[in-house]
Design brief:
single chain, 4 strands, alpha+beta, 4-stranded mixed beta sheet, binds zinc ion, globular
């Protein structure tokens, strides 16, 4: 049997699109990702994917994580650091901002 891409319903309170510095990113909740991945940001397609195979309580923090990647990408900051440096910065900001950010503000 072939695994088919399936987009699932988003959890209440999380958006389907988000504006990052004036650029609209669509948000897709999908099971079409590797099991070990939480999320992914595609700067060219302006799309954030969240792995719906992950527990729902992780999706909000993952969305914040991917939005921070998008901010660093849109501003060109991600080109100034290695992938490991960017990931460390993103994780730090995700943890520091998690309790402060309400996605209704975006
Ligand atoms: Zn990351």
């Amino acid at each position: 049997m072939t695994a088919r891409k399936k987009t699932v319903r988003r959890p209440t309170g999380l958006p389907t699109e988000i504006s990052v510095l004036g650029k609209k990113f669509t948000i897709e909740y999908t099971n079409d990702m590797n099991k070990d991945e939480y999320g992914e940001t595609d700067l060219e397609l302006k799309k954030i994917k969240l792995n719906s195979n992950r527990p729902k309580h992780t999706w909000r923090a993952t969305l914040l994580h991917e939005v921070i990647h998008a901010i660093l990408g849109v501003t060109g900051q991600s080109n100034k650091m290695t992938d490991d440096e960017e990931e460390g910065l993103v994780v730090s900001l995700e943890n520091g901002l998690e309790d402060l950010v309400d996605f209704k503000d975006f």
